[in-house]
Amino acid sequence: xxxxxxxxxxxxxxxxxxxxxxxxxxxxxxxxxxxxxxxxxxxxxxxxxxxxxxxxxxxxxxxxxxxxxxxxxxxxxxxxxxxxxxxxxxxxxxxxxxxxxxxxxxxxxxxxxxxxxxxxxxxxxxxxxxxxxxxxxxxxxxxxxxxxxxxxxxxxxxxxxxxxxxxxxxxxxxxxxxxxxxxxxxxxxxxxxxxxxxxxxxxxxxx
Length: 207
Ligand SMILES: Cc1cc2nc3c(=O)[nH]c(=O)nc-3n(C[C@H](O)[C@H](O)[C@H](O)COP(=O)(O)O)c2cc1C
Known about the structure:
Elements: H1 5-12, H2 22-26, H3 40-51, E1 62-68, H4 72-80, H5 83-89, E2 94-101, H6 114-131, E3 135-139, H7 144-151, E4 157-166, H8 177-183, E5 197-199, E6 202-203
Helix pairs in contact: 3-6
The structure holds flavin mononucleotide.
Residues 28-29, 85, 138-141, 161, 187 line the site of flavin mononucleotide.
C-alpha cells in the first residue's frame, strides 16, 4: 500500500540535528502536488525571502518568471519541461522560471557569480516556502532555448531552474509506479567528511 502524504513527509524529514534550522531539515522536493492554490500573500513572501539573499556586488542578478495555474505563463513554462518532468509538474499550482543577468549593471563586465547568486536566492525561496507549509521542486530538465524563445529572454541572461511550488499531494495521485517509488524513497546525503575539508585530500576536524 502506498504511504500517505503525511507519512511521506515524516519519512523525508532529515534526522534532527541540534541547533540546525527546522526548515532546513524539513524541506524536501515532492513530485505530487495537491490542487490547493498558493495565496498571492504567500507567493509574495517566498519572493521577499529570495530578495534578501546575498549577491556579488549586491547585483541581485536573479529574475523570476512566475505562472499560476491556468495562466499562459504556467502553460508556457510547462511546455518547456522534458517529458519526465511533464509527467508530474503540471499539477503544481505555481511554476517559476529562474534566470540570471550575466553582466554587472555597474560596468557591463561578466558576472561569473550570476548563477551562484540565483541559486542562493532560490534556496531562500525554497526555505521560506517550507516555513509556510509549502513545497518546492526544482528542475533542470527543461529546454532552455525553448524557454528563451517563449519568454524573449535576452542572450545575456542565463537559466537556472524551473521551480514547482505548491502544497504536497498524495503520493498515490502520481501517474505511475516509478514516480510513486521516487516519492517514497529515503533522502540521502554525503557525510560532512566528504565535503568539509582542511586540505584537498583531508577532511576538516569539526569537533
Ligand atoms: C538545480 C536542480 C535541478 C533539478 N532537476 C530536477 C529535474 O529535472 N527533475 C526532477 O524530478 N528533479 C530535479 N531536481 C530535484 C533533485 O533531484 C532533488 O533536489 C535531490 O534529489 C535532493 O532531494 P531533496 O530536494 O528532496 O532534498 C533538481 C534539483 C536541483 C536543485
